[in-house]
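Protocol step 4 of 6: structure prediction from sequence.
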Amino acid sequence: MIQNSTLMAERIGRPITKVRMDNQWQNVAEAEVGQILEAFMGAGFFEFDVAGVKARLEQHPWIRQATVKKQWPDTIALNLVEEVGIARWGEGELINQYGEIFRPGTQQGLNLPRLSGPKDSQMKVMEQFRAVNQLFFPAGLRVTELRLSERGNWSLQLNDRLNVTAGRGDVMNKLTRFLDFYNEQPEDSAAALVAVDLRYDNGFAVRKINEDLSGVAAR
């Protein structure tokens, strides 16, 4: 009986020494997680600070949510939900799929589109980005940059080369009108476009490589 009691006491006081990872991570390194856990490991099963580990993990810029569970007798299981960077914002910041800004602290996201706008305008810019990208995608055009000025003017870049100035009012209709024009152009002519100004009532101006802006009447 004494032997059984001693064995039970030893098992109850057994320290947490093992970590089980329940999912794979893209932007969080195992070494980083190991450094966070180091201060907590070795505590007994019942004394292990689950809430403290969760809070520390969620301070990592790429970890949106951490689930930490103890498993008898000496293991913790981790499930980490990572942030998903949809676009760059400002200097060194990213926007996630919820329109929230986070700072990853690394050079991640260099191939993502760049969005910019006044303070607290990221949701508005994100919604416009989705609408504009959906409009141009069937034509093989990808929005690589979208800007909203302090005065409410929209401008964008397509495929890292074609700059479009849309102005303030009726932006989606202006972009649709330009897209109709773009789709009618021969492939070489469309590829030569480098700038478009849509801030006209009855048309827009286009510029090709090594050319000045020239007007195009709207139909």
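Step 5 (inspection) to follow. The two ends are 95 Å apart (CA to CA).
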